[in-house]
Amino acid sequence: MFSLIVSFSRVELLFFVPAVFLIFLNYKIFLKIVRKLLLLNFFIVVLSIFLYFETNIYEAINLFLKVNLIILFNLLLFFSSNGFDIVKGFKILRFPKKFVSTLYFTVRLIFELNIELKNIKNSLKARNFKPKIDIFTYKTYGNIFGVLFIKTVSKTNSLKESFLLRGFKDEIFLNCEASLKVTDLLLLSLFIVLFFIKVSS
Prior knowledge:
- With about 200 residues, the chain is mainly alpha-helical.
- It is about 75% helix and about 0% strand.
- The two termini are about 15 Å apart.
């Protein structure tokens, strides 16, 4: 809802209210979120500069603020998420069974590959590997991507066979307990107010 409203509107101070609310809730990890946002800003700045030359500075600034606001909001909302709670959220919202199952398998695969990547990084550190601009470094990275690709195919097949043996039929069963907190209701209220203000204006 927030991303759609911001995407199709001019940036207004009102849009910052939900983000500020989430900053207040995530103040302990806010610096980590800012670091992640700054890293992503490299691409946003390049896009804004391109738009500046194509149109004008006001459009470029508007795009820069909108993209940053959307990314900041999503980082604040999902930074502490492990992915599986998002799958549970879609199941609670009664999305199609196939969609929820596909999303679950995707998150599961990403989770397992992330563990593999961390193991490879630790292995490289233990061997005192230092990346340089040379053939050896390129070959090392090429081997890492190759290993990850092979492991992806292998884990996908083993996961498929495992679920077929268990009689899987399009639906994944998750332990979902839908509970709304006060902060959830407050954030939802902010969305509704923001939506109606934009519709009426």
